[in-house]
C-alpha cells in the first residue's frame, strides 16, 4: 500500500515538474508551434487553399514584434517604423545586385550593412527625439520616414530605382526561383524557402524574447508604466529608450532584408506611411502588452487580407450570394474589427482576449473535475 502511495506521489511530482518546465518555456514552444502549424493551417482548402503567403507572414511577425519592443514595452509610438524595414530591403537589394556600379556583396554582408544603417539611424534619431514627449516623438519619426521615402523616390545616384524600386538581379546566388517558388540551395542540398525563413523567425523571436524578459526589458516596462517613478528609482530612462529604439530598428531591418528576397526586390511602397500605419494596427489588433500579441495581429491581418480578397460567393444551401464586390474593401472590415478591439480591450487585443477566455475555460473545467 505504501509502495502504491509512493508511486502515485512520484507520478504527481513528475507531472508537476513537466508542467512547470512547459510553462517556463511556453514561448519557445509556442514559436515552434507557429512555424509547424502556420503553413498547413492556411493552406487548408476551407481557408486560403495555398501556402505561398506563409513565409511572408513569418517575416511580418518579426517586423511587428520588433516594432512592439518599442511601442508595447517602452511605450514609444513610432509612426515611421517602415523606414527601418526599408533600410533592410534596399541595402540587401542594392548590395546583392551591385546596382549603379556598387560592388556586388554576399547577401549576409548586404543585410548586415542594412541592419547597421538602421541601428545607427535609430540611435541618432532616438537621441534627438525620445525625450520630446510621446506626440512629438510620433510625429518626428513620421517626418523622418517621409523624408526617407522622398529621398528613395528621387533615386539618388541611381541606387534606389525611384518609384520602380530595385528588382533586377536581387536574388542571392544560393536562392533559386522555380515556377514562382523560392528554394535555398546550399552545398547541393535544397531547402524550401519557408524553412529558411522559419529559422530566421525562430532566432529573431527568441532573441527578442530574451530581451523582453531580461532586466533591460523589465526596465522598459517600468519606464512605460511610470516614467517619473522609474527615473526616481535610478533608471536612466533616456538611455533605455534610445537603446530600445536602436534594437527595434535593427530587428526591423533584419526582417526587411529577408522580405527583399521574399518579394524579389525592394519597393518604394514599403517606405510609405501606409506601411507604418498598418504596423501600428497589427500590433494593437493582436495586443501590445503580450509577446504573442503582434504574432496574432499579423496573422489576422494578413490572413484576412488574402481570404477576403479571394472570397467571392457565399453558399447558403438553397441560394448563393455574390460578395466579391463587397469584400474587395477588406480594409473597411478590418477597420471595424480594430474599432471593436480598441473599445473592448485596447491593451489586451485579440491575444489577451483569447488568453482570458482560455483561462476561464480551464478554471471551469478544473472546477467540474474536482
Would you mind describing this structure in some detail?
There is one protein chain. Helix 2 (26-42) packs antiparallel against helix 7. It is built from 15 helices and five strands. The chain is mainly alpha-helical and 370 residues long. The strands form two sheets. It has a three-stranded antiparallel β-sheet. It has a two-stranded antiparallel sheet with strand order 4-5. It is 69% helix and 5% strand. The protein has helices spanning 2-24, 26-42, 54-73, 82-97, 107-129, 134-153, 193-213, 215-225, 227-232, 237-262, 273-286, 293-310, 324-327, 330-344, 349-369, and strands at 175-178, 181-186, 189-192, 313-315, 320-322. It is globular, with a radius of gyration of 23 Å. The model has no long low-confidence stretch (mean pLDDT 88). The longest helix is centred in the last third of the chain and has 26 residues, at 237-262. Strand 4 (313-315) and strand 5 form a beta hairpin.
Low-confidence stretches: none
Radius of gyration computed on alpha carbons:
23 Å
Which term fits the overall shape?
globular
- Number of DSSP strand runs: 5
Question: End-to-end span in angstroms?
Answer: 24 Å
> With helices defined by DSSP (H or I, 4 residues minimum), what is the helix count?
15
Percentage beta strand: 5-15%
Largest sheet properties = 3 strands, antiparallel
Helix fraction, binned, reads: 55-70%
Q: What is the averaged pLDDT score?
A: 88
Structural class: mainly alpha
SSE topology string: HHHHHHEEEHHHHHHEEHHH
Order of strands, widest sheet:
1-2-3
Amino acid at each position: 500500500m505504501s509502495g502504491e502511495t509512493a508511486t502515485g506521489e512520484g507520478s504527481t511530482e513528475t507531472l508537476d515538474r513537466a508542467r512547470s518546465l512547459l510553462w517556463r518555456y511556453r514561448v519557445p514552444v509556442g514559436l515552434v508551434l507557429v512555424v509547424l502549424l502556420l503553413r498547413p493551417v492556411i493552406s487548408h482548402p476551407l481557408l486560403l487553399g495555398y501556402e505561398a503567403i506563409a513565409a511572408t507572414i513569418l517575416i511580418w511577425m518579426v517586423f511587428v514584434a520588433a516594432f512592439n519592443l518599442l511601442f508595447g514595452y517602452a511605450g514609444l509610438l513610432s509612426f515611421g517604423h517602415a523606414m527601418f524595414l526599408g533600410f533592410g530591403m534596399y541595402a540587401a537589394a542594392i548590395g546583392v545586385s551591385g546596382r549603379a556600379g556598387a560592388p556586388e556583396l554576399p547577401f549576409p554582408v548586404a543585410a548586415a550593412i542594412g541592419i547597421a544603417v538602421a541601428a545607427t539611424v535609430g540611435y541618432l534619431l532616438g537621441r534627438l527625439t525620445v525625450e520630446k514627449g510621446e506626440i512629438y516623438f510620433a510625429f518626428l519619426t513620421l517626418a523622418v520616414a517621409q523624408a526617407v521615402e522622398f529621398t528613395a523616390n528621387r533615386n539618388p545616384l541611381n541606387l534606389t530605382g525611384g518609384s520602380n524600386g530595385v528588382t533586377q538581379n536581387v536574388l542571392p546566388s544560393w536562392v533559386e526561383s522555380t515556377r514562382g517558388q523560392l528554394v535555398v540551395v546550399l552545398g547541393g542540398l535544397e531547402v524550401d524557402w519557408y524553412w529558411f525563413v522559419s529559422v530566421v523567425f525562430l532566432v529573431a523571436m527568441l532573441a527578442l524574447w530574451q530581451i523582453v524578459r531580461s532586466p533591460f526589458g523589465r526596465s522598459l516596462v517600468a519606464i512605460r508604466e511610470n516614467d517619473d517613478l522609474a527615473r526616481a528609482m535610478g533608471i536612466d530612462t533616456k538611455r533605455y529608450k534610445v537603446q530600445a529604439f536602436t534594437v527595434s530598428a535593427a530587428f526591423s531591418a533584419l526582417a526587411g532584408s529577408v522580405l527583399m528576397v521574399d518579394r524579389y526586390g525592394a519597393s518604394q511602397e514599403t517606405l510609405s506611411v501606409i506601411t507604418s500605419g498598418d504596423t501600428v494596427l497589427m500590433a494593437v489588433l493582436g495586443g501590445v502588452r503580450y509577446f504573442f500579441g503582434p504574432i496574432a495581429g499579423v496573422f489576422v491581418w494578413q490572413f484576412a487580407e488574402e481570404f477576403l480578397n479571394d472570397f467571392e460567393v457565399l453558399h447558403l444551401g438553397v441560394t448563393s450570394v455574390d460578395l466579391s464586390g463587397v469584400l474587395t474593401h477588406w480594409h473597411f472590415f478590418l477597420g471595424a474589427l480594430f474599432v471593436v478591439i480598441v473599445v473592448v480591450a485596447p491593451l489586451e487585443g485579440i491575444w489577451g482576449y483569447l488568453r482570458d477566455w482560455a483561462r476561464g475555460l480551464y478554471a471551469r473545467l478544473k472546477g467540474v473535475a474536482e
